[in-house]
Amino acid sequence: MVCTTVIIKKKPAGVPNIVVTDIDIIIDGITVKANETRTIEATKDKVTAQVIATVKNIGNAKGSKNIQLKVNGVTKAGVFVTLNPNETTTEKWTLTLSSSEVGERYNICVE
To answer: DSSP label at 11?
Structure first.
C-alpha cells in the first residue's frame, strides 16, 4: 500500500496597504518636492498651488482609503481611492495661499 497525506487549507486573505509615495507642489512654475523646504517670492498677495500626490497600494489585496490633503494640520480636502495590489493613482488639488512681506509658512501634507 502507498499512501500520502494532503492538507487542504484556505489561503489567508491578503492585506491592502495604501500609501502616499510622493507629493509635488507647484507654485508659479516652481516645483517643491516631498520633504523639501523652499521660499518662493510671490509678486501677488495670493498664489495658486497645485498639489500632486502619488498613491500606491503596496499590499497584496484590493483596498480603499480616504486620502487627505492637510495644510498646517487642518484637513482641506480628501478623496476616497480604491486600488488593486501594486496599482498607482495620481490625485490633484488646487489651493490658494496668501503671501506677506514677512512670509507665510505652510506645511502641506497628504496622508
So the answer is: P
Pairing relationship of beta strands 108-110 and 63-71 according to DSSP bridges: antiparallel
Residue type at 18 in one-letter notation: I
Grid coordinates 498646517 are at which residue? Answer: 72
Q: In residues, how long is the chain?
A: 111
First-to-last C-alpha distance (Å) of the chain: 61
- By the 8 A CB rule, do 25 and 19 touch? no
Q: By C-alpha distance, which of 36, 83, 80, 40 is closest to 59?
A: 83
Domain that holds residue 38: 18-110
- Cα–Cα distance between 62 and 92 in angstroms, integer? 22
Count the domains in the chain: 1
Helix, coil or strand: residue 63:
strand
The CATH number linked to 39 is 2.60.40
Tens digits of residue pLDDT in 22-64: 999 999 899 999 999 999 888 889 999 999 999 999 999 999 9
Residue with C-alpha cell 489567508? 12
What is the value of pTM for the model shown? 0.85
